[in-house]
Amino acid sequence: MTKKISTIISVVLLLASLTYAFTYAWWLTIEFKPDALEIEHILISEIDKTWKKVKVLSIDAIPKDALESDPYDPIKEFGYVFSYAGDLNNDRIEDKAIVGVYEDTSGNFGRFLVVLTRFKKNWKMSFVSKIPGKPGFSILRFSKGTLIWSLCMECGSRGELLWDGKKYSVDWSKSN
After folding, report:
1. Which of 49, 119, 137, 156 sits a CA distance of 20 to 30 A from 67?
2. Would you say residue 125 lies in a domain?
3. Among 150, 145, 91, which Cα is nearest to 117's?
4. How many domains is the chain partitioned into structurally?
5. How confident is the model at residue 6 (pLDDT cuts 50, 70, 90)?
6. Which residue stretches of the chain are H helix?
7. Does position 70 have pLDDT exceeding 80, yes or no?
8. 93-114, pLDDT tens digit by residue?
9. Which is it for strands 109-119 and 83-86: parallel, antiparallel or unpaired?
10. What is the sign, positive or negative, of the torsion defined by CA atoms of 58, 148, 118, 129?
11. What is the pLDDT of residue 25?
């Protein structure tokens, strides 16, 4: 009987370790609940009239158990951020890019990238890009003069924020 129990325990441990080995990284599975009505004191209806609620992503928005689930931290290792302030279009006026999730008035969800521009002491809306779907993770990284919007930290799902002299766009063509 003890050999049978020992075999069962071994099988259970093997299955548990295999399950762990095939677990996705937390940033691929995590979802966020939109709960705010403004971004940087701008009402979300001024950003997108269809939005009901948003959540601006930050390190504090990620459940602690997700962050502690893996000692590897690509956020710190690769310099990722959830918002980036700088002159994104070379007009000598500060801009701020922010990522988050939204829920629209029809109950649909998605992710967003918003670019705000400094206007006196406040921010004004300059650009918004939306990706309908699950209210999942996204993050930013500034590299070689380019702001990159990533939907994960170790895959090729990323877009580059571009400025053509008149307007912003996100180019996803270099994604893997």
Report:
1. 156
2. yes
3. 91
4. 1
5. low
6. 2-21, 26-29, 44-47, 64-67, 74-78
7. no
8. 999 999 999 999 999 999 999 9
9. unpaired
10. negative
11. 80
What span, in angstroms and rounded, lies between the C-alpha atoms of 145 and 18? Answer: 42
Q: Which residue has the tokens 């966020």?
A: 32
Local structure of residue 31 (DSSP, 8 states): B
The verdict on residue 11 lying in a domain is no
Domain presence at residue 70: yes
Tokens representing 99 are 């990522």
The pair of structure tokens assigned to 39 is 């971004």
Q: Can you tell me whether residue 26 is helix, strand or coil?
A: helix
- Is residue 8 included in any domain, yes or no? no
Q: Which of 43, 143, 39 is nearest to 86 (CA)?
A: 143
Is the sign of the CA dihedral 28, 36, 111, 168 positive or negative?
negative
**DSSP string over 125-141:** EEEEEEEESS-B--EEE
Domain that holds residue 110: 25-171
